[in-house]
Amino acid sequence: MGLHNKTISKMNRQRWLALGLIGTALVLGSIAAAANTAANPSTKSAVSVAQPADPSKVIGNDACVKCHAPEQAVWSKTPHAKTFDELHRRPEAKQIASKLGIESIKHSGRCVNCHYTQQSVNTVTSNMSAGVHAIAGVSCESCHGPARDWLETHHNYGGPDVTRLTESPEHRKQRVEAAIALGMRNPNNVYLVAQSCYRCHTTADEELVNVGGHSAGSLTFDFVSWSQGTIHHNFVESDGKVNIPSSPERLQLMFVAGVLAEVESTMRAVAKATTKDNYGVTVAQRAARSGARLKSVASKVNDPRLDKAVKIFETVSIKLNNEAQLNKGADMIAKIGVDFAENPPASGLEQIERFVPTKDKWK
Ligand code: HEC
Ligand code: HEC
Ligand code: HEC
Ligand code: HEC
After folding, report:
1. Closest residue (by CA) to atom 26 of ligand 3?
2. Domains of the chain: which residue ranges?
3. Ligand that comes closest to the CA of residue 142
4. What's the pLDDT tens digit per position in 76-90?
5. Cβ atoms of 291 and 313 closer than 8 Å
6. Mutational test site, ligand 4, from 80, 143, 151, 224, max ligand atoms within 8 Å of CB
7. Are 206 and 272 in contact (CB under 8 A)?
8. pTM assigned to the model
9. Cα separation, 292 vs 16, whole angstroms
10. What are the residues whose beta carbons fall under 8 Å from the beta carbon of 119, sequence distance 6 or more?
11. Which residues of 179-193 are buried (b: 16+ CB within 10 A; e: fewer)?
12. For the chain, how long is the longest CA-to-CA vector?
């Protein structure tokens, strides 16, 4: 990862506190005005903030497995799948729950938001009562979006006689766009998937950390190195036969998308900080580090959108009790991230090749 290790090590905690948490608010009119445009739903692309999967729209991995058996097989061996059976048995989990007065880890929204997938059941069956149930750990839909609304569009190739192989490129493009509009976090726009990761791997919950003692997020998380190892499941090109490694160009784009998504998510995490405690200090440090990483990427890849993202980061104050400004900034970064992943620069990304984590670093 070495992109900015120097910056991090130099940035000691005291200095950071002085600069960030206790700094003066610098609300620039321009940012507020631009963010208003970002929040306006009539503009072309509305901001896509990652959320826990809506239980009423969750259909479960079983709906994917008939076409995606190899992906499911990879997934079933990951901590994302295993957390379903393991988490509530772990002493550390029980300890966190008891500090927060939570009786059932599997039923408390607090833990379910990131450790489980919930589904609403309307029709009572022999083994399920009506209501909301945790049906899996972190599942397909946790990362790719709850599928009730998009599944049909996802495999509609344009008519009864059209197959995946005879579908026109225009239809494919429209189909992917339509699925995204219906809530799919489709890796064709990899920022949308990066946002899923960072929503969970940045613990934006002050009480869970300060009172419960939960970690303040996966501090070493990096989109490339955490997505290309054990969780990697790219079988589409080989029709399910081989888990194909992502190309260097793909990884470069994912790297930049990850850097932007980390800036977005850490700004949202700092937005939740109200006291100068473990949570506030840790998420502020992480935000500063992600901003430094962004700056470094922007200086190497010549793209005005990255310069704009740096400017947004530098304009907002990484400090306590600054929710509105930080969330506005995060919304603006999200828009840039979605646009960047949709229309990557024609050239220049290869400038970051040597910073993209290599295979030996993949988890
Ligand atoms: C009827 C078969 C079918 C079902 C059911 C299905 N998929 Fe797919 N999916 C495909 C095929 C085929 C592809 C390969 C790319 C293509 O042709 O669109 C694909 C591609 C994808 C992709 C890659 C992005 C893309 O759009 O090409 C993702 C992500 C994905 N599927 C997720 C899911 C998830 C999650 C589910 C369950 C909620 C699911 N799929 C259910 C057939 C299906
Ligand atoms: C914002 C998302 C989020 C929420 C909410 C959350 N967790 Fe976690 N939790 C994570 C992530 C991500 C990890 C993996 C952390 C890492 O990489 O170090 C984790 C790790 C853990 C671990 C350590 C797992 C291990 O490998 O030993 C425990 C225990 C735990 N969580 C318990 C809980 C409990 C109990 C709750 C509810 C009170 C909860 N978590 C709520 C995201 C969350
Ligand atoms: C719904 C929340 C959620 C989402 C979305 C999510 N994760 Fe996780 N992830 C977790 C939790 C919780 C754990 C820890 C599970 C445990 O140990 O019980 C975890 C663990 C992991 C691990 C194992 C870490 C280790 O130390 O072995 C990797 C790797 C990982 N996640 C990568 C990713 C990537 C990459 C993405 C996005 C593509 C992602 N995660 C999206 C919640 C999530
Ligand atoms: C932890 C988050 C996460 C989970 C859980 C997850 N995916 Fe993915 N998925 C990703 C990421 C990230 C990519 C893009 C990886 C890349 O291009 O290197 C991806 C890519 C895909 C693709 C396209 C692969 C290709 O060959 O281009 C399909 C299909 C897919 N996922 C289906 C599924 C299915 C089905 C499940 C559930 C069994 C699932 N995913 C679970 C994060 C996740």
Report:
1. 363
2. 5-50+185-361, 54-140
3. 3
4. 999 999 999 999 999
5. yes
6. 143
7. yes
8. 0.92
9. 13
10. 55, 58, 59, 60, 132, 133, 135
11. bbebbbbbbebbbbb
12. 66
